[in-house]
TrEMBL record:
Segments carrying motif HXTX 1: 34-37
Gene3D superfamilies reported in the protein's UniProt record: Cyclic phosphodiesterase
Protein name per its UniProtKB record: Putative phosphoesterase G4D64_04380
A Pfam family of this chain: 2_5_RNA_ligase2
Active site residues per record: 34, 114
Chain location of the short sequence motif HXTX 2 per the record: 114-117
């Protein structure tokens, strides 16, 4: 089975992202707007269960943190992806790095926190759409992230939550 680890932002930020994704992102119907912490990887059903159990403890070691989306950017010329840029924070960077150490993996790309709003665009489409969107003001206030999610991919290509991991220790 294919797994991934993500943060889902607030409904307000998801709605803002989806207003563009429905037009420019062919993955719109497959997964809600998200920040990828760990790119998709293969695991058996048993490995997924073990990982979910371990991640519940791992989450206790990280405190909730604030997240701020602040502009629209692009990965061009590397690829024609348009995204909402998320402020780099020490807490987010630490969560990403610790997650990769914890899962004994190395990220394929440098960590650039973002929410994809357009992808698989031709050069001309990218140029035209990005030219318009880079002037859009991202007017979403800072939000608190207190959880992340282990996802799995269904046969139809869509993603669904396998386990939700809360950050910080639960008050008892």
């Amino acid at each position: 089975m294919k797994l991934g680890i993500v943060i889902f932002p607030s409904k307000k930020l998801q709605d803002f992202a989806n207003s563009y994704r429905k037009r420019y992102d062919p993955h719109y119907a497959l997964i809600p707007p998200h920040i990828t912490l760990k790119a998709p990887f293969e695991a058996t059903e048993e490995q997924a269960k073990e990982l979910a159990d371990k991640l519940l403890k791992f989450g206790e070691e990280h405190k909730p943190f604030s997240l701020n989306a602040y502009k629209i950017s692009s990965f061009q010329p590397v690829n024609n992806v348009i995204y909402i840029k998320i402020n780099h924070s020490d807490e987010l960077e630490s969560l990403h790095e610790d997650l990769h150490r914890f899962t004994d993996s190395t990220p394929e790309y440098a960590f650039i926190p973002h929410i994809t709003i357009g992808q698989n665009l031709s050069n001309d489409e990218h140029s035209d759409i990005y030219g318009q969107l880079k002037m859009v003001k991202v007017n979403v206030e800072e939000e608190i992230v207190d959880r992340f999610h282990l996802l799995y991919q269904l046969e139809n290509g869509s993603w669904t939550v396998y386990e939700t991991i809360r950050l910080g220790k639960e008050e008892k």
